Amino acid sequence: MPELPEVEVSRQGLMPFLVGQRIVKAIFRTPKLRHELPASLVSRLAGLRIDAISRRGKYLLFDCESTQGGGWLILHLGMSGSVRLVKPDMPLQKHDHVDLVFAHTTLRFRDPRRFGTLLWHEGEGVGQHPLLAVLGIEPLSPAFDGDWLFAQTRRRSAPIKPLLMDSHLVVGIGNIYAAESLFRAGISPLRAANRISRERYRILVPAIRTTLENSIAAGGSSVRDYVHSDGGAGCFQLSCAVYDRLGQPCPTCAQPVCSLRQAGRSTFYCPRCQR
DNA sequence: CGTTACCCCTGGAGGC
DNA sequence: TGCCTCCAGGGGTAAC
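ok -> structure tokens follow
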């Protein structure tokens, strides 16, 4: 589920309830997600106040009094992770790995596949953390425009689709939104990045931005339900034009949607609308 | 350096 | 029903 929009929707949903609240207690039930959970973190977190929640790519960043002797809690949802605000007596489900207990609510992190991770950065400057320092540009930032992406891809002969998913270049675009953005821009996922014109990059980048922003807006309308949910109601998701729609009619030309594998990931596209 | 294959892990879907 | 294979929204690493 989590690409940039889902992480951003989670952030916006958590913020009103957690900012200003102190962590009463942290509970780790699983010793290892993607990374080892340091046992000392349980005691380190107790008593710290959440001053802000920010996002870098698909990472959620909890500012735990970082400017006053605290640090940053870094959370990545991986492929199957989710966070919810629950009542403290909510029965545990399988793969509920972490609770952050606050006075009036509990943040519960669930991740069946355990590709997600929870890390701690002591003090300020969380951007210097090794996992964050290597990240590329934010796709919703003004600096991300067609000219920038054109310049970055002059020596890249790989197909554009896996490049859009490379977080060292641009963060937050996963398999769904890469496919949807390319459809919106009318660009084939197979086209070599250095064989796309500047003009077409000036179409592609706004297409990416629109795709992400529309998804955030759609999720944003049900944020409160999402973070308060007992697990039933998920985040409303915009219906896709091509992703996971093999053989179904293209919304533009009714030609059947095609599928293939690129760099180990399935890709969906309209062979008529995307060149 | 850029690109791709493989791996981490569980669970659901579909074939037999 | 069970067993098998394949697939899944991410990303780091190693090998070409």
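The longest strand of chain A covers residues 50-56.
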